[in-house]
Amino acid sequence: MELRYALLFLSLLAPSCAAHILEPYDFLFDTAVEAYYKGEWLTVILNMEKALRNKATVRSVKAQCRLSCANQTAFGDRPSGMDAPLPGAGSVEDLGFFQKILKRADCVNSCETDKLGTRTLHEVTEDVALEFKKRTPYNYLQVAYFKINMLDKAVAAAHTFFLANPDHMEMKQNLDYYRMMAGVQPEDFKDLEAKPHMAEFLQGKSYYSDDSFGLAANHFEVAVDEYFTADKECKAMCEGAYNYDGYNYMEYSADLFQTMTDHYMQVLNCKQHCAVELASTAGKDKPFEDFLPSHFNYLQFSYYNSEKYEQAIECTKTFLLFHPGDEVMNQNLAYYSAVLGEDKARDIAARQISTQGYKRGIQRKSILEKELLYFGYEAFGITFVDPVSEQVIPYRSLFAYLMADRETTARITEEIGNLMKEIETLVEEKKKDSSDMAMVIAPQEGGALLHDDIKVTMTANQLNGSQRVLLDGVISEDECRELHSLSNAAALKGDGYSGRPSPHSPSEMFQGVTVLKAVKLGQEGMVPLKSARLFFDLSEKVKKVVESYFRLDAPLYFSYSHLVCRSAIDEKQKDREDLSHPVHVDNCLLVSELNECIKEPPAYTHRDFSAILYLNNDFEGGEFIFTELDAKTVTAEVRPQCGRVIGFGAGQENPHGVRSVTKGQRCAVALWFTLDPAHEEKVRTISVDQHQHN
Ligand SMILES: *[C@@H]1O[C@H](CO)[C@@H](O)[C@H](O)[C@H]1NC(C)=O
Ligand SMILES: *[C@@H]1O[C@H](CO)[C@@H](O)[C@H](O)[C@H]1NC(C)=O
């Protein structure tokens, strides 16, 4: 009796227990690495294999959750319980839309939590993610397998690692050595990370070049099916967290629809990249060109050689959907049709229009996605570089199909038109705001500096422009040092973008911390709170000085403040011609080709003044420059040094940039001010005093 209870208990609990103990793969990886250094090979294998398995499980669960939730909560229906339209209630449809969003979020959330445990459990640091991307686990595995004499597995692991690290000389030697060993078969050199669609494609190609056309066709057919599965998964994986690109997340304060738009555009961009990702494989540095269509090219010829003319015709017709004008394929079609009989041939349809309508669906969706992206690009300046060259998915020829579908086109045009109108209204309102503001500004120079230690080193005249000033002695040597170490401490404590490549130059590393982040880190004890406080106080001091020097009648508010260090990467300085920070204007979009600056979002149009407080001079390069609107003609150049401030109007009279930092680390506090209190930086409204006695 007792036993039966126990069993019942177990069987009830077992499924959910099993689901919740999926061990995080970063933890398993660490355990394996530790065991490696102790020479405990079985433990290495056990944990590393499990880490790879669990990582794959996490990915696949996430994709499956998103796909099945998308299935359950498709958009576009009326909200449940609202069958009849309410009089004058246009927003009811809006509610329906958001109801779906909430339901989808709930569905995905509970699906993932059910299967994987809490959401944060399987989050890993960037470092760990990179190790897996570089296939490092296979490096450990090959040694461990070799040590316990599992030669075939050692070879496969070595091969898998080498594919992603073709410059790894040691592994190359290992592989040469394995090749000469007795008992090692050519089939042992497997890519254990190969995606099914790619593995099938490569298999197909290999049979194809051996003239084994029957086998080739089988593999290409499977490859096509796997391609669409992989495509769906890849796209589902794009629906992840918003990536702030590292350095402006503190400034991010978009409204509901802008937030949704920004994130959605990123998702679409990612989805477009799937075509490239699917056509890529570790052993090849470029993606296969014309990847999906090429399957049908191989297939048609394989079927022809197997004397399967119906299939051959079907595949030529499918290929021609991508490249309607392809001469060779049209000739093939004519030839196969003649062999089979014209009448019979005419009745054979290309694949996607017949039974597997979903293929056409995928292509049409891709085009719609692109349209939205181009729209986002035009309306919001959201960057979209089309990753899909015509070779990979020749969408321009597919465009014809879309255009034929008048209804869809008309609908999209109308929706886009409506959205455009809304945006225009918003922009107009914003412009009105800023022109009201402009009346208040009556900038003049030469006001008091408020502190005796500060002196004017150069006026606007000496700086060859207007609304410019160079001040020295604004802060002391000690204060410079303290802020400099604050930056390095914050970078170390996982500000999220420590040691990142600079967003502006591949030859530099970049680290930045905002006042808000510094205060938070200070409160958490990660950096000295005193230093965070100093950052806050000194930026206030600079603001007051700028306000006073330019004799502003209205107060300035912080729009953003950022302590930024740029470090030269020593090995990347040869033949360098780029700038550390390209020439730009702070409150408008500089179009240097036209000598124009457009004061519209996404530029930070509300910024009115800017100041940069320098902290050091022990580096090479890194001069601050003012230019003409052409972004080329340098009108003035300033060398940073501790306590120096360059202050200037944020408008088109002051295009500026930073010359490349070629040696050492250059640190500065960048400050942007606005006259519009509505755009005040968040941190200024929360008290930084409450914890100062901690
Ligand atoms: C989506 O729903 C349809 C019909 O209910 C079903 O046939 C299909 O398998 C589902 N797809 C997924 C990914 O769950
Ligand atoms: C201003 O222009 C003059 C003449 O072109 C130049 O010599 C001088 O260095 C410029 N001033 C600064 C601060 O660069």
In short:
With 694 residues, the protein is α+β, with helices and mostly antiparallel strands.
Outline the structure in words.
With 694 residues, this protein is an alpha+beta fold. Among the domains are: 409-439; 455-692, q2cbj1_9rhob like domain (Jelly Rolls). The chain has helices at 2-20, 25-38, 41-72, 91-116, 126-133, 136-147, 151-164, 169-180, 196-209, 213-237, 256-278, 291-305, 309-322, 327-340, 342-346, 357-380, 395-404, 406-440, 477-492, 515-523, 529-549, and strands at residues 455-458, 468-472, 500-501, 508-514, 557-568, 581-584, 589-591, 596-598, 607-614, 620-621, 624-627, 634-638, 645-649, 656-658, 661-663, 665-674. The two termini are 61 Å apart. The site of one 2-acetamido-2-deoxy-beta-D-glucopyranose has 5 residues, from strand 12.
Secondary structure tally, helices: 21
Number of strands: 16
Cross-sheet strand order for the largest sheet: 1-2-13-9-16-5-4-3
Q: So what's the overall shape? A: globular
CATH topology of the domain at 455-692: Jelly Rolls
Q: Cofactors and ligands present?
A: 2-acetamido-2-deoxy-beta-D-glucopyranose
- The termini sit apart by 61 Å
Query: What's the story with the biggest beta sheet?
Result: 8 strands, antiparallel
What's the name of the CATH homologous superfamily of the domain at 455-692? q2cbj1_9rhob like domain
Percent range for β-strand residues: 5-15%
- The percentage helix is 40-55%
| Second CATH tier, the architecture of the domain at 455-692 | Sandwich
The value of Rg in angstroms is 31 Å
